[in-house]
């Protein structure tokens, strides 16, 4: 009887683990509860529909879909148009954005928002604030410099960098922007909490390189962007993004 009970328990545990693993593998989906809360997918796990490269009509050649993730795979010698930052077709004002990312060793990237797409600006970061992505282990100098580490509001507010996982592990980002109140979460931990557009914010920006770009972080609505233009990392540089979803606030 004892042995039979052990077998029963083992089968039950195995079934639980299998079910749990199956649930964990359901990436790029939203639950019925999330849908009722207003969440929508920005990436369906199969195509780059809803995205294009900045100032281009379609995604550059270095962006593709692989194993249920958006993959950037590039060589520094590739034409810039091939790895130009990816941006959403849609624009967003007040939102809650969640996504997961991982990278090849020593790579560097970021997630930008309120990006204003216009030939007036060559790059997304001329208008869009950035939640920085950098491999803690070896991205130099970014992973060793305050305000340039993973989770930072790039060049403006430094986060507690210990919450980032080293390559090739996945990391979870969340950006909440609600009428200028911006919060960053890295792997579930709040790392940035600030208010845009007020006098304190303007003074902060004025102390950085962004003071040379008068329209930086001034737009109240814009595109979400995944940065592909950084050239740090072991070549070929690879970045993966998945489980990208947003909820309008």
Automatic annotation (TrEMBL):
Residues 1-24 form the signal peptide. The keyword Signal applies. Keywords: Signal. Pfam families: 3keto-disac_hyd (PF06439). Residues 38-247 form the 3-keto-alpha-glucoside-1,2-lyase/3-keto-2-hydroxy-glucal hydratase domain. InterPro entries: AL/BT2_dom. This is DUF1080 domain-containing protein. It comes from Dyella humi.
């Amino acid at each position: 009887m004892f042995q039979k009970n052990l077998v029963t328990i083992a089968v039950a545990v195995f079934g639980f683990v299998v079910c749990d693993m199956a649930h964990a593998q359901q990436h790029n989906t939203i639950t019925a509860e999330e849908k009722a809360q207003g969440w929508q997918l920005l990436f369906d796990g199969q195509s780059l529909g809803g995205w294009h490269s900045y100032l281009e009509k379609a995604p550059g050649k270095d962006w593709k879909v692989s194993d249920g993730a958006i993959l950037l795979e590039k060589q520094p010698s590739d034409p810039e148009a091939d790895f130009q930052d990816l941006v959403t077709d849609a624009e967003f004002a007040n939102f809650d954005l969640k996504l997961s990312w991982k990278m090849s060793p020593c790579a560097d990237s970021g997630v930008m928002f309120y990006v204003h797409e216009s030939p007036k600006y060559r790059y997304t970061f001329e208008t869009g604030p950035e939640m920085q992505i950098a491999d803690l282990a070896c991205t130099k100098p970014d992973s060793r410099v305050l305000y340039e580490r993973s989770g930072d509001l790039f060049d403006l507010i430094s986060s507690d960098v210990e919450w980032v996982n080293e390559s090739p592990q996945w990391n979870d980002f969340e950006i909440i922007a609600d009428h200028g109140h911006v919060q960053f979460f890295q792997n579930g931990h709040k790392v940035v909490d600030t208010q845009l557009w007020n006098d304190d914010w303007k003074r902060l920006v004025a102390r950085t390189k962004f003071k040379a770009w008068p329209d930086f972080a001034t737009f109240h609505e814009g595109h979400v962007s995944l940065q592909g233009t950084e050239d740090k990392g072991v070549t070929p540089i690879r970045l993966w993004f998945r489980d990208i979803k947003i909820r309008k606030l």
